[in-house]
Specification:
alpha+beta; Trna Endonuclease, Chain: A, domain 1; about 130 residues
């Protein structure tokens, strides 16, 4: 039996909180519903973070996962969050994406293994964003 969406979200948040601790960031959890899942005090700056669990296989692609960035039919913007934190269970890593990557995007395709034709242009290679 697979995990529920809520369980996946809980796992992703715990992985992010653990990584934040390892990186020396101080974490805060919102006490009321908000567009962000976590606040991070990292390198002297506060970040509003949205956490995602990425295990959705990409269509027609091996070595990549897709992350849906719509919540309640709205995309995330830089006015709502400062960072997108994505946990990828296949490689047990957390990736940090700034607004230049996620702002008003419907989804992202993250590649954790090289393409068969070695293409890198236009690919979001996970190793470039591991936090």
């Amino acid at each position: 039996m697979g995990l529920t969406t809520e369980q996946k979200g809980d796992i992703a948040l715990l992985k992010v909180l653990l990584r934040a601790r390892e990186r020396g960031a101080i974490s805060f959890l919102p006490t009321t519903p908000a567009r962000c899942d976590v606040l991070l005090d990292y390198h002297g700056r506060l970040y509003r973070g949205q956490v995602k669990f990425a295990d959705c296989k990409s269509q027609n692609s091996v070595g990549a996962v897709r992350v849906d960035l719509r919540r309640r039919k709205r995309c995330y913007t830089r006015d709502e969050i400062d960072v997108l934190l994505v946990y990828i269970p296949q490689i047990d890593e957390v990736c940090w994406f700034g607004p230049e990557i996620f702002h008003q995007k419907v989804g992202l395709q993250l590649r954790f293994a090289p393409t068969k034709n070695k293409q890198r242009n236009g690919c979001l290679m996970v190793q470039d964003y591991i936090w």
